[in-house]
Queue: 4 jobs
Job 1
Amino acid sequence: MSTAVRQPAAAAADRKSATMGQALRHALRDAMADDPDVHVFGEDVGTLGGVFRVTDGLTAEFGPDRCTDTPLAEAGILGTAAGMAMYGLRPVVEMQFDAFAYPGFEQLVSHISRMRNRTRGKMPMPLTVRIPYGGGIGGVEHHSDSSEAYYMATPGLHVVTPATVADAYGLLRASIASDDPVVFLEPKRLYWSKADWDPQEPEAVPGIGRAVVRRRGSSATLITYGPSVPVCLEAAEAAREEHGNGAEGWDLEVIDLRSLVPFDEETVAASVRRTGRAVVVHESPGFAGPGGEIAARITERCFHYLEAPVLRVAGFDIPYPPPMLERHHLPGVDRVLDAVARLQWESGFTESGGFGQGRGGGAV
């Protein structure tokens, strides 16, 4: 009997935890160990180990030729990476902060994104651009942008962003292994988030282009990614506690897109067709932001299943605010629940009178 009592405690002691930053470091290290063509470089990634210490120890283990400090020249960093990729290497570059990447945008748009198309597929472009992005850390100007819409609107780029420790490792490994250029957006505020995760036995995760359902629900679908995933999960729990899961309750499903390009329409459409309502949540500004594209795709594929318009909760259409004001700018639980409350719960649509045909009509 005493042995049976001790087993759960022993199992708990055996569990390992890691932060997202640590998982990213393990992904870089394992990729470099597995493939000598993988090179990491960027501003302060070597001796300092990166501003967020994601590359800490890589120069000591692999040498300065494999993990290399660069000048403060983003256009030169990306131009060099493009040339390395053209000659068969697999560069992984770090743009120190989201808004620091803009000087290199021309290289990304004019050359990196077009190379495979320009050569009719004969020349791959195995290049990964790591960009810490988003708010939540009190960063000053040029240190807290949500610039994903720029990359999404550039044909030829894959755009991915993890929200969990396991995805940080799995998606970064998949990005480095890809023969297409990948913009890998790392949510700054989640660098220190923790989860049970063993670097010796990392769990398998879906690849690039696949979304996952983080929470099952039946009333409405929250569609989000990156730093807004924990916000939506918290909102879904708050909705359950405040409104219940009964016939008139709010039982919210949460989808983590993980991959913005390619976009997993099948997972999103299947959820919205089942729930009949959808809210898209992201930190990027609302006007011409990712939510507009996602809402349009949902409307095109799920129109006859919708019981309310697709709504968006986004950052405001302003330059990113100072640190003391960012809490008002970033989508939070209250703003998400306010949007859910506007999903026409008492619209009374019926099969004979309007929308709702896919779910039998009526308010949930």
Note: Confidence is low (pLDDT under 50) at residues 1-13, 348-364.
Job 2
Amino acid sequence: MLSERRLEVLRAIVQDYVGTEEPVGSKALTERHKLGVSPATVRNDMAVLEEEGYIAQPHTSAGRIPTDKGYRLFVDKLAGVKPLSSPERRAIQNFLDGAVDLDDVVGRTVRLLAQLTRQVAVVQYPSLTRSTVRHVELLSLAPARLMLVLITDTGRVEQRMVDCPAPFGETSLADLRARLNSRVVGRRFADVPQLVQDLPESFETEDRGTVSTVLATLLETLVEETEERLVIGGTANLTRFGHDFPLTIRPVLEALEEHVVLLKLLGEAKESGVTVRIGHENAHEGLNSTSVVSVGYGSGGEAVAKLGVVGPTRMDYPGTMGAVRAVARYVGQILAES
């Protein structure tokens, strides 16, 4: 276990390196921080931190920089979540409040996160599997053609065309709409198949084929993997950190293009607290020089999806964690009110 003083020295090194982009020397540390000890003691503490793998010396004559292990300890023990200022919170609320639908909410969230953190922002669409049904609408397009519209509690809207085996009148359509909604509104998607399985039998024989076709389309919509959707923004921000990537930025960009990789990373986020994956903790090799800060968001107490940012390991962890958490909270409120 490191002593409290050495933890203070590590915190100072991380803060200075993140702020200046330059390796940190003992002289600079004692000048910038009130550590309460002599430069010789700081040098000794730095030697211990280096020996234990928390900091490293990139060049023989240079100061020290934090390692992945050093950043990990900084985040776990030392980094509080930096609260956003009142103007920042107002800006978030005003920007997100203008959203007109779910696509707009997600798009605005990505732009906002990228601007606040100056990193790459990643937002997952709300998962259908965790959603509940808000309403099912059925519209007649032709005597034997319908449109099915499924609206979820997260504001997601799915539309499907239904070709009926026989003409279906307006009266029958209104009856089916009413009975269907009475069974499924407010219920979780996973429960819907069981709730509607005997519905066709309650209709006249000539309408049962159409009712079954509508239900089959509804159930297909529920199980489709449409929730595996991500939106990424701010990739250009990475170009500001070219020197933070040891060889080239290309592996990072290639990893960001693989949505499966990003979904897996976001999947590791906790439901409520902020999750931080640093450097080699990211299983994908292309992201070994990055950190991923992520959190779940949703209406009520349950997360329906994840959002986060990807940036170099030399990042402002308290500020980034605070921004990610605040944005997730506002998005959750919007979904709850929509």
Note: DSSP finds twelve helices and ten strands in the chain.
Job 3
Amino acid sequence: MGSQPQPLPTPATQLGREGLAAILARPERAVVAIDFDGTLAEIVADPEQARAHPDAVPALAALAPHVASVAVVTGRPAGVAVRYGGFAGVAGLEHLVVLGHYGAERWDAVTGTVHTPAPHPGVAAARAELPGVLDAHGAWRGTWIEEKGQAVAVHTRRAQDPQAAFEALRTPLADLAAHHGLVLEPGRLVLELRPPGMDKGVALAAYIREVGAESVLYAGDDLGDLPAFAAVEKLRSDGMPGLLVAADTVIAELAERADLLLTGPESVTNFLTALATHM
């Protein structure tokens, strides 16, 4: 048992309550999987300035020794998430796994190394054409291109009208992605061009099979987390208990499908800390 148990919020759904009960009953057979941006780290105008909430690492370190595995599942490169999260060399997180680029990359704390595939050639080709596409649609001013190695993203958060720029670019960037054999992944004022065949749902389901987990918790906040929600829903339909946590209510579909609604990284870290005290 851990320290004096802290109050835990009650999931709004029966499936969520069953998922939480299963995790608490046999934590050593549970996987806790968590998105990074917007879930463990606040959303900021410049993604390079994003950092995990100060309480995130202590919360994960308190929780990790009790469960089968803690996995951070992110669209960021795995190494970047490790640096921005401060996950390396932390007592209690010796077996943390970061599944980066939607699972295409993997960092294991036990080795401290990143396993990454060769970059898709379409990413470089699309990146070379991006400035022209942005300029042609009058959306260059205030947008920002983020190099992600295995992907490339266009952020509109700093544009004069962020939502208008986002909507104006969706179709042309989808066309650009398709031309180079990529897919377009929309998020919160960000449009990412990345290789097909990998998403957070595929990555999460594969990792759960690898670990041999009997229950799962997934927490996320954005459109890219919907495939992970779908993976947990599929696992639940097959008999595995699971708990779905929305770290924010901005994305309506995510909030509607969640068992538990939280309000950002601070709320998430408080929940993880409380969860650890019940194990």
Note: The chain has a mean pLDDT of 93.
Job 4
Amino acid sequence: MVLRRSLAVAGAAGVVGLSFVGLVAVGTYAASGPAPAGTAALAPGTVPAAYQGLIQKWGTLCPELSPPLLAAQLYQESGFDPTAVSPAKAYGIAQFIPATWASHGVDGNGDGNRDIWDPADAIPSAASYDCALARDTRGVPGDRVANMLAAYNAGPYAVISNGGVPPYAETQGYVRRIRSLAASFTAAAGPVGYSAQAAGAIYFAQGKLGTLYLWGGEGLPSQGGRFDCSGLTQAAYATVGIRLPRVANDQWYAGGHPARDQLRPGDLVFFAHDLNDPRTIHHVGIYVGGGYMINAPHTGAVIRYDRIDTPDYIGATRVTSGGAAALPARGRDGTIANGSGAPAGPPASS
């Protein structure tokens, strides 16, 4: 919330077996370093196409800001939902409260109206507000991006008076989450580093081959140990100490996004109804190599190997503990549990 304190393949088992676990440790890529703020481009498929141009343009408004950083803030605030309303009466895709909108809202699309509900105004306003905070804290020692984010959460006076990010757990956590989450929106300048926990996740999933699918299944004894697609991926990564969100279109942001020719066993692979809108992701599996994944496909099927190269394939995520930890939590009603009130969107597990 803007302004905090300052105001099916039976035979495939023979082809794609446990031997693929060994590939995880082979051919390790070096992770590319982070791009400087303001220069990083958005990774394909990470933001809805309707907002991509706005985020790419306004994310370069000042040196402390970048398109992935702006995208991470919008996702954290509303899940890219322009109709979001928080319990604290923050509104729209950028979750402005009216008092802050009155002083910092801009007419981003030049239609003569500053509309808190219109992403064409709210996204430029979020960027403008970030950059105003960056200017307010420019003389403060330390990392300028961190100070800007801290001012967004706690207000510029808190940053100035503390000589940097203030010692508030909420504010320090916010800075850490947004910077980690921004990596999930950043187009890779080189190959994406592999996840060391991938082998364990695959091992768990392979142990569930042949288990009957269950919508909403999380492998609980009361569910007969059955899973749906995102329940399986969540449980698999939980065995290696990584807590993924429950639904597939949130799991999409749990790390960087390797290209199709850079996939490694353990990557999560995703499928969407609209390849230009990650909010329509409906299915996820665990890549095992050779163009195959382990997945819990649908009602009436069992956990099995399937090919990933289908028309609805939107991309992949290389899970990291930092990326997963940065994701906003959702409540039982599907809303983002950070006060922004964004709905879960379309069903995200098939």
Note: The CA atoms of residues 117 and 226 lie 41 Å apart.
